[in-house]
Amino acid sequence: MDSAADTTPGKSGSVRHYDSVGSRVFDVLNVVVLLALAAVTVLPLLYVLAGSFATESEIDSRPFFLWPRNFVTDAYDYMFSTDVFIRALLTTVGVTAVGTLVQVMLTLTMAYPLSKRNLPGRTLALNVVIFTLVFSGGMIPTYLVVRNLGLLDSYWALILPLAINPFYL
Asked: Among 18, 53, 78, where does a domain finish?
């Protein structure tokens, strides 16, 4: 038994052993850094949420606030009074649902056969998949393919280019 090691009981009944003061300092610094990153991530979201419930004059007069002086729902009233938002929301949900279904089905048709070890040509197919992981065509060739297929300005242009992606396998 090492009597120099400090032990602290954990939540699950386990015991945490600190080998040195340095490991405690490291843990404290980890917590401080992670809390700072959490604040940097959450504060802008809270600011936007607070701004959505504030008046225009309050947004102009106060450079930063997380709690509006007067809660108003004017922004939400405007947003839901126009059909543009509802149409955009339904389009997003539709493209996401159809795209997810297409991607899962096409990825499944590639992943299942590649999971079989004695499939003839499996090694070649896996090497092609790995090659496309490292070297992708890029944005311009993808645009050219979408244009040549006549899919510009359609919802399929959002779904088909990533319908089967080697990162999903």
From this structure: 78
Q: Quick check: is 1 in a domain?
A: no
Are residues 73 and 112 located together in one domain of the fold?
no
Buried b (16+ CB within 10 A) or exposed e, 97-117: eebeebbeeebeebeeeeeee
> Range of 62's domain?
6-78
Q: Are residues 108 and 58 in the same domain?
A: no
pTM check: above 0.70: no
Q: Residue 64 class from Cβ within 10 Å (0-12 exposed, 13-18 middle, 19+ buried)?
A: exposed
Are both 36 and 87 inside the same structural domain? Answer: no
Tens of pLDDT, residue by residue, the chain (169 residues): 455 455 555 556 566 666 788 888 999 999 999 999 999 999 999 999 999 999 988 988 988 888 999 899 999 999 889 899 999 999 999 999 999 999 999 999 999 999 999 999 999 999 999 998 888 888 899 999 999 999 999 999 999 998 888 888 8
